[in-house]
Design a protein that fits this description.
The chain crosses the membrane at residues 365-383. With 406 residues, the protein is α+β, with helices and mostly antiparallel strands. The protein has two domains: 2-22 and 364-405; 32-342, YVTN repeat-like/Quinoprotein amine dehydrogenase (Methylamine Dehydrogenase, Chain H, 7 Propeller). Helices cover 17% and strands 37% of the residues. The chain is built from two helices and 28 strands. It has helices at 2-28, 365-405; strands at residues 40-44, 53-57, 60-65, 68-72, 80-85, 93-97, 102-106, 114-117, 126-132, 137-142, 147-152, 161-167, 175-178, 186-189, 194-198, 203-206, 214-220, 226-231, 236-239, 246-247, 259-267, 275-283, 286-287, 292-297, 305-310, 315-320, 327-332, 339-342. Strands 21, 22, 23, 24 and 25 form a five-stranded antiparallel beta sheet that branches. A four-stranded antiparallel beta sheet has the order 1-2-3-4, with no helix packed on it. It has a four-stranded antiparallel beta sheet with strand order 5-6-7-8, with no helix packed on it. β17 and β18 (226-231) form a beta hairpin.
């Protein structure tokens, strides 16, 4: 009996040590809330409500599911500056490096990466990436080498990405936006110009029909798809093809006497009829004050309602929460920490209960469960042995007494 108990106790001790090591590893990748990130520079929301979203915070890559965010490993020496997610499979993620002209693809949620070097003889970094999931095209914007068009040929042997086009530009790329419906819409924005793709990115033309300099661009995967452009002075405009545009500013005007300047436009990828705009007012080209407001549209931009007004800071970027209609996060000119805005409560960390199979792993959890089961087994074994031993001792004493009596 004692030997069996000792063996079980030894097993329990080993499992506990494994659990402790796993928990220590887990503490290195401690989960945080989205608003716990401090220096968000890029963001890619999942197109599924329960899919993985990705954020770049201080050069590191984070993955988030239902409000819980954990850091992901990236190749050694890579400073992440841009991220895009496959709208069909959120485990497929692309990142661009700030310190070299390379992009990386992972097909298992960031566990393993494959590198594609854009131009070994050029210097600079990647500023923006966007992925057309229908046509399997990755568009990569850079600081000084224009836009690259790469075709994703999937996993297996080889790099998985093939160069298939290159547009040289004189200015750094600020933003890239594409659709994933099959229409082949793709747009590239610099500080002065907006470019529209033709022939699925094999040719590019300048969009010269906007009423002011482009300040933002976003594509909604609706049916048919739509592209939204923010401008300095003309508000928000919408187009089905990027050639003909019409303003959609009902509810955005009336925030001042000057012209509407748009800081950012964002589309909820899981519900493309919901979009968000961060605006301010300019007078004769000069911004009025440091405040602005964030508005939401639930009908594709036909009408807008105010979500929040900000004081002493302008919105630099809007980050929609996948599947949350009335919630958007804002980065401001004063801070790159996400601020939750809207009529829905912000997503909180879900650190208890079961983890969805597409969610985030918790290091050490399995070991602690095994250790708990081993503890229960040890307790049951001790009780059983004591009972069994008690029965054996009673029987032996009775026999001795009987013998002695006879």
């Amino acid at each position: 009996m004692i030997l069996r108990i000792l063996l079980t106790a030894t097993t329990l001790l080993m499992l506990t040590l494994v659990a402790w090591v796993g928990a220590a590893a887990g503490s290195e990748s401690k989960r945080v809330s989205f608003t716990g990130l401090e220096n968000v520079r890029a963001y890619a929301a999942a197109a599924q409500v329960d899919g993985r979203s990705y954020a770049v915070d201080g050069g590191r890559l984070y993955a988030g599911v239902n409000g819980a965010w954990v850091p992901l490993p990236v190749p050694h020496g890579v400073i992440v500056n841009a991220v895009a997610v496959d709208k069909v499979d959120s485990n497929i993620v692309f990142i661009g490096a700030a310190n070299r002209l390379s992009v990386f693809v992972s097909r298992n949620g960031g566990e393993r990466w494959m590198e594609f070097t854009l131009a070994s003889e050029s210097i600079g970094g990647v500023t923006a990436v966007a992925f057309d999931a229908f046509n399997r095209l990755l568009y990569v914007g850079t600081v000084s080498d224009g836009v690259y068009r790469l075709r994703d040929i999937g996993g297996g042997k080889g790099q998985g990405l093939v160069a298939s086009g290159h547009l040289l530009l004189e200015a750094p790329v600020e933003e890239v936006a594409v659709d994933s419906t099959g229409a082949g819409l793709a747009f590239v924005r610099t500080t002065e110009k907006l470019y529209r793709a033709e022939a699925y990115g094999l040719r590019w033309v300048v969009v010269d029909s906007l009423p002011g300099p482009p300040t933002a661009v976003a594509v909604a995967d609706a049916s048919p798809p739509r592209v939204y452009a923010g401008t300095a002075g003309g508000g928000v405009l919408v187009s089905k093809d990027g050639a003909a545009w019409r303003p959609v500013n009902q509810g955005l005007d009336g925030i001042g006497d000057g012209e509407i300047i748009v800081y950012d436009v964002a589309v909820n990828p899981a519900q493309p009829e919901f979009l968000y705009a961060a605006t301010g007012v300019s007078d004769m080209g000069e911004l009025q004050g440091l405040s602005g407001r964030v508005a939401m549209s639930s009908d594709g931009g036909d009408s807008w309602e105010s979500l929040a007004e900000l004081e002493d800071a302008q919105v630099a970027e809007l980050l929609p929460a996948a599947g949350r209609k009335g919630l958007v996060y804002a980065l401001t000119t004063a801070s790159r920490t996400p601020v939750a805005l809207g009529v829905e409560p912000p997503l909180e960390m879900q650190l208890t209960g079961g983890v969805h199979e597409r969610g985030l792993r918790s290091p050490g959890l399995l070991a602690w469960v095994l250790a708990g089961h081993a503890s229960a087994a040890l307790f049951i074994l001790v009780v059983s042995e004591m009972r069994a031993g008690g029965r054996r001792r009673v029987g032996t004493a009775y026999g001795m007494r009987a013998a002695q009596a006879g």
